[in-house]
Structures are given as structure tokens and as C-alpha cells.
Amino acid sequence: MAANSSRQNETGAWHGRRLTNAFFTEGMHNDADNTTSRAMPKAEIREILKAFGNFIFLSLFLLISPALVYLDSVVLGYGIREHSFTEYAQEIFLFVAAIAFFLLACRNKDFRGFAILVGGFFGAMLIREFDALFDRVWHGFWVYPAVAWSLGMVLLAARYRQSLLPAMASATRSHAFVFVMIGLATVLAYSRVFGTGSLWRAVIAEPDIARAVKDTVQEGLELMGYLLIVYGSIRFVGARLRSAQAPRIFAIDRKIALAGAVNCDVEAASDAAILRQRKTN
Known about the structure:
Blueprint: H1 2-62, H2 64-75, H3 85-107, H4 112-129, H5 131-134, H6 143-158, H7 164-172, H8 175-194, H9 197-203, H10 207-242, H11 246-259, H12 264-280
Helix pairs in contact: 2-10, 3-4, 3-10, 4-6, 8-10, 9-10, 11-12
């Protein structure tokens, strides 16, 4: 009987200690949860303020386009010509975007092939912007240096083709690169369609006025597209140059591609890689 009583006392003491430990452990977890819940609003507020600051900056940055169009058309009264502040700004911003990607190609080998292609494409667009200069040789001569430049860039990027697809996949997950694509769509498609001469001749009966409006709208939209391109390029390239985890991200991406994402571990690794990549944007 004494032995049974002793065992019962020991069992009761063990349960008591277990309940006590559980109580304190639960309290610690609750304190940690409360601390996390208190910290989360501050982090979210910082993210919201950062996004709002980016919105304000981008809004003011895009005002460069109407400001320069107004300067050329109203203040100077020359209109949008080959030698105008609007045209000069287009060439400068396109040049900056191309240089940014060539700098990325020099500094980050994981993005080298992709950066050469993008920078080379912007370089070909820049040659097209100087068509008036090349027309002094003969009309349409700009095509030949543009084609030669493009072939050279493709051959150079082919030397680093191992990093080409992973870098492209990384760009598709980048918020900054979205601005580059929207800018390209604005320059190559929207400005061309919205600046069609037949559209404005149908709206404005006077041919000279219709042509002036057409040129103003088209060049203004092109400049807005180049502003978006340079904005996204600087953000994209700057994030990649600051990122110290780019080699690890691409190593994980390659393992995921080989494994085919067939089990939970691989899916978890993929999610981790995407989260790391988003932090660099």
C-alpha cells in the first residue's frame, strides 16, 4: 500500500510539473505572438509608405514627358522635331537603360547573357532613334548598323547561354521589370497606334494641324514609354547588383528544374527561392 501511495504521489507530482511547464510554455508562445502582432503593423505601415513614396516619385517622374512637350511646342514654338528637347530626352533615357543592363552584364555573371540581350536590344532602338543622322548616308541606312549591332549582341549573349533562361525566369518574377515591359509596349505599340496620322486626320480636318497633333501625341507617348523603361531598368539592375544571394537563388532554381518539382521538399525550395527573389526586387 505504501509503495502504491508513493507511486501515486510521484505520478501526481510529474503531472503537476507537466501542467506547470505547459502553462509557462503557452504563456511564452502567447507573449511571442503578441510581440509579432505588435510588430506586424509597423512593418506593414513601412511597406505601405514605401509603396506610396514610389507612387509619388513615379507620378512626378512621368511629368517630364508633358513638360518637355510643352517646352518644345509652346515655350519655344518649334514643335516636336528631330532636334528638340523631347527627342534628346528619348535618346538619353534609352542610352541610360542600355548602359544599366551592360553594367549588370559586367557585374553579375548569373544575368550576363540576359543583360547583354536586353542592353543590345535597347542599343538597336537607340540606333533607330538616330535615323535622321544615318539618313545623311542614304534614306533608311540605319537598318544596316542596327542589324550588325543586333547580330553581334546575340552572338555575344550566346557565349553565356547557360544563364539565359534562369535570368529570364527571374525577370518575369520581378516587379521592376514589369515597368520595362509596359514601357516597351507603350513605345512599340501604343504610341504608334495612337499616333497614327489617319486617326488624327479623321478627327481634325486641317491637315497641318492634324499632323502637328499626331507628332505631339506620338512623341509624348514615346517619351513616357522611355521614362518607364529607364525607371524599371534602374530598379531591376540596382536590385541585382545589391543582391548577394543571386548565386544561391539560381542554384536552387536549377535543382528545381532538374527535379521537376515532384515532391513537397522541392516545392518548398521553390517557394523559398521565389521569396528570396522577391526580396531583391
